[in-house]
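Hi, here's the filled form for the chain we discussed.

Project: internal
Contact: R.S.
Residues: 470
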Amino acid sequence: MRVTVTRFSLARSHRPVFRRPSTPTIRALSTSLAHHLNNTAVMSTAWKPVFPFAQRLNDGRALALDVWTIFSAANLPPDCINLGQGYMNFPPPSWTREAAEEALRSVEGNHYSPTRGRVRLRKAIKEFYGTQFGKELDPDTEIVVTSGANEGQYAAFTAFIEPGDEVIIFEPFFDQYLPSIAFQGGKCVYVPLHPSPEPAPNVKTGKRSWTIDFDELRRAVTPKTKMIVLNTPHNPVGKVFTRAELEKIAQIAEEHNLIVMSDEVYERLVFDGQEHVRIATLPGMWDRTITVGSAGKLFAATGWRIGWLIGPPSLIGPTTAATIRIVFSSNTPMQEAVAAGFEQARERGFFEQQLKEYEERRQVLIDTFEKLGLEYTWPEGSYFILLNISRLRWPENYAFPATLEGRGRDFKAAWFIANEIGVSSIPVSEFYCEEHVNIGENYARFAFCKDLDTLRRAGNRLQRLREYIV
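And the returned structure, exactly as it came back:
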């Protein structure tokens, strides 16, 4: 059964936001978390509102107890294997780290970079992408370096979203989209992707990637719609949007004069010969598309916080003006490291080798879930797999912390797996609005951006779930 599109107003503070605690209960919940999880460092129990805070903090879930806090390493068993958060347990390539060290040894490498990004890095981005966007990029007007992909997107929302503007996002969504839009006074309109019942080829329990109901998408557009946020390859589903799907999204964007924010940070993690299509290259889309990139995903360097945006001057110019006021400029030595990464990646065959390694890692989790006999979504891209945990049952008297009360069933499943099996994951209902939480609570997200030994150990542990499957 398909669910209907929900237009959810972030401005209506009297309406609960996705089963999150209301503002008056935040202090009590933080105290509860410390009590039940034995961790007083999670959130300050001494904090209390002295002055009225901006409503945007509540609208953007910024004050709510988030999934990353609940499932932080501090709250889980010491030997729990972390397949929840999407950071790597291996370093970036050595030649990029050497470039950062060289920058640190210089005087210039320790001071402000140009606000648009270092000339070397913008040139390296231009040369690396070449004509992938259907044209030669101008590094001065069509590329801006940002402090991570997330800050770049925030700057673009700041530049173009007015209070009351609506932004369409597909569910499940990367959780930073919501606050970044809400902080501008924007309103999210949620269009859910739908799990596919069709089996993936050559496996027993894997299912094909999730689908879009384009009637739902069209109904989501109103005269207030300003932007569509697209994420391909998709986190957390692992979906790679097809050319046909992107053409339909492009048609809607053109018909209604919408901006498209295309989050393509997993662009080099596309498996099985799938085609990564840049929506900016489709007819008529260059002038209305901001494409988002990330060194954290390309070079296994999530802590460097270097991203970039590519698009026409009419979109990059205002976004650059916003990012200058938000961060002024981005980390200098890490920009040098990323520039070196781009400059040498092709001759070293880095991305080709990296893709093969990720295919091996993906296979470990696929084999794990196949042996368990549990359904999972076949990951076409990114480094996540969604496991269907609806058949998982735990003892009726199992003691869960109070912080899980009111959350989706997947929160309890992920907590049980982490504490009893020793492998952490992330409950997917976190990435939904309240009306669609029933879709997400059947799934837990497992990351395979870890070394093979870690993934194999996790796979062995997960086989113990057999006794809890019905």
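Let me know if anything looks off before we file it.
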